[in-house]
Amino acid sequence: MHAPSDSRSKGTREIREIIKKVGELHSIDYVEVIDYPHEQLMELLSSCDLLIDQFYSDAPNSGLSLEAASLSIPTLICGYFEKQVPKSDFKYPQLFECSPDTFHEVLVRIIED
After folding, report:
1. Which one is predicted more confidently, 17 or 97?
2. What is the pLDDT of residue 78?
3. With contact defined as beta carbons under 8 Å apart, do 20 and 65 qualify?
4. How far is Cα 85 from Cα 107, in angstroms, rounded to an integer?
5. pLDDT: is 61 or 46 the higher one?
6. If phi over 0 gives left and psi between -120 and 50 gives alpha, with beta otherwise, what is residue 17?
7. Which residues of 53-63 are buried (b: 16+ CB within 10 A; e: fewer)?
8. Is the pLDDT of residue 9 over 90?
9. Confidence of residue 85 (pLDDT cuts 50, 70, 90)
10. Contacts 24+ apart (CB under 8 A), 72-81
């Protein structure tokens, strides 16, 4: 599931393109949720297997990914924050982080694992 608050700044076009490529080799039931009331969004989130949060995040976590974690739903989030923030041993629960350059590879690994 992908639920962007702003599809341009969240990289929705890029996510769609990669989902299409990955979907040629793997069975993916991709759901995009735009402009849904919060209650409906949470209902859909609670039934998904993976939240694809955003492609261009400036932080290693977001409010939506925290809500997903509270439901034990893992999140894949992309950004260049690892270059901006010193390395830490702390890991967010239920969170897969990567750069936009490795999104395709990380998504395939999540699906195959």
Report:
1. 17
2. 92
3. no
4. 23
5. 46
6. alpha
7. bbbebeebbbe
8. no
9. low
10. 73/45, 73/46, 73/48, 73/49, 74/49, 74/50, 74/110, 75/50, 75/51, 76/50, 76/51, 76/52, 76/103, 76/106, 76/107, 76/110, 77/52, 77/53, 78/11, 78/54, 78/103, 79/54, 81/57
pTM, two decimal places: 0.88
Q: Which residues contact 103 (CB under 8 A, 6 or more apart)?
A: 14, 15, 18, 55, 76, 78
Task: Say whether pLDDT at 102 is over 90.
Answer: yes
The C-alpha atoms of residue 14 and residue 76 are separated, in whole angstroms, by: 14
Buried b (16+ CB within 10 A) or exposed e, 67-80: bbbeeebbbbbbbe
Query: What is the amino acid identity at position 94?
Result: Q
Read off the tokens for 109. Answer: 């690994």
CA distance 44 to 57: 22
The answer to whether the Cα torsion of 69, 109, 14, 32 is positive or negative is negative
